[in-house]
TrEMBL record:
Binding site for Mg(2+): S56, D57, D58, D271, D273, T274
Keyword Hydrolase belongs to the record: yes
Cofactor(s) for this UniProt protein: Mg(2+)
GO molecular function: hydrolase activity; metal ion binding
Protein name: ADP-ribosylglycohydrolase
Organism: Siphonobacter curvatus
Annotated transmembrane regions: none
Cofactor note: Binds 2 magnesium ions per subunit.
């Protein structure tokens, strides 16, 4: 039996990949299609014609972020790890990249051409996909265990930098910061609804310090209203960063087990792998490794490698 600390770390890494792999076969499907043929477990093939248990860029870039944190947070190192994934298939499920977002691809092309890491991410309002949100959660562990004395502004600056390797618009950065802040409250031992109420109180007026009123208003459903009370038809699951953030938080907050959270997330359809991955990471952190169905875990590609990374991340966080 792993300690609570170990179970959270392992649960996060495994939970991220499980949610991702559950969504890969049904990425880009419609919600109506999944109403008739809902995801109930690991599937093979489908959208990307991959074997069951195959995870995508969501998990791969999360793991590359963790590898960088273990070595020591350095943005050039992080950029190089992302490039190793993109160009050489490092930290992919089966040796090759089969899924990558447009903004992420454009940023990595610029990194390959020598653009400075913090200037590589696109800053246009039209470039607010979920490509940095999907890989940002390791920072919650880093802040909580390695850098607990950082101020809100210092944490925000790091989140901005890590996001900006691929997504530099303030909307993507704030979305990443909300997700990381929520996960930190979970790591502090708070019950999930209490954690949600805490970030509403602590971050409710924060965006107003750094963005326009119109931009801040986009986060009102999360920070000013009650996301939990929304119905499924009011939750969207596209690749837009705000849709992904809301869908993952809603799926996690309106369920009571890892499996229910991930199945709810994936069956929202559309960008199912990212919604599943982010939800799976939160739920794995919260319910621990023991909360993830064993038969799902056993199907995962590179399970032993993920376990090894989880062990190394655990030792780093303990140090």
């Amino acid at each position: 039996m792993k300690s609570l600390f170990d179970s959270r770390v392992h649960g996060f890494l495994i939970g991220t990949a499980v949610g991702d792999a559950m969504g890969v076969p049904v990425e880009f499907t419609t919600r109506n299609f999944l109403k008739n043929k809902p995801v109930e477990g690991m599937r093979a093939y489908g959208t990307h014609h991959q074997p069951a248990g195959t995870w995508s860029d969501d998990s791969a870039l999360t793991y590359q972020t963790i590898e960088t944190l273990i070595q020591g947070l350095d943005y050039r190192t992080l950029a190089n790890r992302f490039l190793n994934w993109y160009l050489y298939g490092d930290w992919t499920a089966h040796g090759s990249v089969f899924d990558i977002g447009i903004s992420t691809r454009n940023a990595l092309d610029r990194l390959e051409q020598g653009v400075e890491p913090l200037k590589a991410g696109e800053t246009s309002e039209l470039c607010n996909g979920n490509g940095s949100l999907m890989r940002i959660l390791p920072l919650a562990f880093y802040f909580h265990y390695q850098q607990p004395k950082l101020s809100l502004d210092e944490r925000f600056a790091i989140v901005r930098n890590v996001s900006s390797l691929t997504h530099g618009h303030i909307r993507s950065v704030i979305a990443c910061f909300v997700l990381v802040s929520f996960a930190q409250e979970l790591l502090a031992g708070k019950e999930k609804v209490e954690a949600y109420r805490t970030i509403q109180q602590s971050l409710g007026s924060f965006p107003e310090q750094i963005c326009s009123a119109d931009e801040c208003e986009l986060f009102a459903r999360i920070l000013k209203e009650d996301l939990i009370q929304l119905s499924e038809k009011e939750i969207y699951s596209s690749g837009y960063v705000l849709h992904s953030l809301e869908a993952a938080l809603w799926s996690f907050l309106t369920t009571d087990t890892y499996s229910d959270a991930v199945l709810r997330a994936v069956n929202l359809a559309d960008d199912a792998d990212t919604t599943g991955s982010v939800t799976g990471g939160l739920a794995g952190l919260y319910y621990g490794l023991e909360g993830i169905p064993v038969n799902w875990v056993q199907t995962l590609a590179r399970f032993e490698d993920i376990e090894d990374l989880a062990g190394r991340f655990t030792r780093f966080l303990h140090s």
